Amino acid sequence: MLWKLLRQHISVAQLAGFFIANLCGMVIVMLGIQFYSDVSPVFEEEDSFIKKDYVVVTKKVSTIGSLSGKSSTFSLREVEDIKSQPFTVEVGEFQPAQFKVSAGVSFGGMNMSTAMFLESVPDNFVDVKADDWKYVEGQKEIPIIIPKNYLNLYNFGFARSRNLPQLSEGMIGMVSLDLYISGNGMSEMKKGRIVGFSNRLNTILVPESFMNLANHKYGGSNELKPSRIIIEVDNPADERIARFFGDNGYETEDNKLDAGKITWFLKMAVGIVMAIGLVISALSFYILLLSIYLLLQKNTDKLENLILMGYSASRVSMPYQILTVAINFAVLVIAVFLLIVIRGMYSGMLSDIIQGIDGGGIFVSCMVGVILFLFVSAYNIIAIRRKVNAII
């Protein structure tokens, strides 16, 4: 009965305008977040064993430089110059093995061995559990990280040509390698265990503590200058990085800078789209408040009479509050439905042109929609109650 009395003067056109505007704003915000979460993994492929924002730097090798004997290593002054750059967080040097090493493995009735090389970087650049990535003198097993493309070469090249079984990362982790180390007239066999695969570093990593001990025992007396530098940067998209590398003739070993720039532009685009969506939602929210305030103003006499008849302010406010919450909830439900439909449309197209698009869920986007719904509804409830109290 109370609702029948108060629903007069309701403007369907105004409520419909709010509904459409709020729906557009919420869909834009949720779709922007969803698109970013779907596409960004392609440009932000993480290496679970190496720090996120890093760049591996080498010097350019030219024909003239090779013929003239020009060194491709980094001097102490150059390393200090890199450390002093504003974009640099931390700098580490690759330390190569100064001894001979070969590795052998036995499985499937076959024995294989090959010459190999080892390098190390400071342990704080490697994100492996401390128990797995450590070495003390006399330890039987040496933890190793190898490039993932080595495993791919075996599985899709060597194994197929020799009719050998393909190996997963888990299976490789259970295989023990025989490492034959020699130098300075001494030799020794140690066991190696692969603890991870790197998508970014094209080298075979061992702990720095092992490399220091082995180089001292089996290597030469001269300390080699680093030919590669690993740099942790605060923002891979910083244009100063590419400019500094170009001015000094440095190169990066992967597309980390390009991926960082793409990710930065992607974040900017998504941020702009979300800002537009939030502005539309704010305007629609303002339209709804104006509609409710106008409706309350038109029903001032009825509200005053209801209060005099014994109805409380909360009871009189409830029909309008329920109306706004119901509209906001309908907007949320339809927005989620549209998000699923639109995402299904662009996912198929993206999967055809970009490899790596996965089927991640829409939980984060839906949670943002729920948060917007709760915020707008709570503010509407409070604003309507205050307006009713002001009228009476």
What can you see in these coordinates?
With 392 residues, this protein is an alpha+beta fold. The protein folds into two domains: 175 residues, no CATH class; 201 residues, no CATH class. Helix 9 runs parallel beside helix 12 and helix 11 packs antiparallel against helix 12. The longest helix is centred in the C-terminal third of the chain and has 43 residues. 25% of the residues are buried. The model has no long low-confidence stretch (mean pLDDT 77).
Topology summary:
Layout: H1 2-6, H2 12-43, E1 54-59, H3 63-68, H4 76-83, E2 88-93, E3 95-96, E4 100-107, E5 110-116, E6 119-120, E7 141-147, H5 148-162, H6 169-174, E8 176-183, E9 186-198, H7 208-218, E10 228-233, H8 239-248, E11 250-252, H9 256-298, H10 300-308, H11 313-353, H12 363-391
Parallel strand pairs: 7-9
Antiparallel strand pairs: 1-10, 1-11, 2-10, 3-6, 4-5, 4-8, 8-9
Strand content: 15-25%
Q: Numbering strands along the chain, what is their spatial order in the largest sheet? A: 5-4-8-9-7
Number of DSSP-assigned strands? 11
Average the pLDDT over all residues and give the rounded result.
77
The biggest beta sheet, please?
A: 5 strands, mixed
Percentage of residues in helical conformation: 40-55%
- Name the shape in a single word: elongated
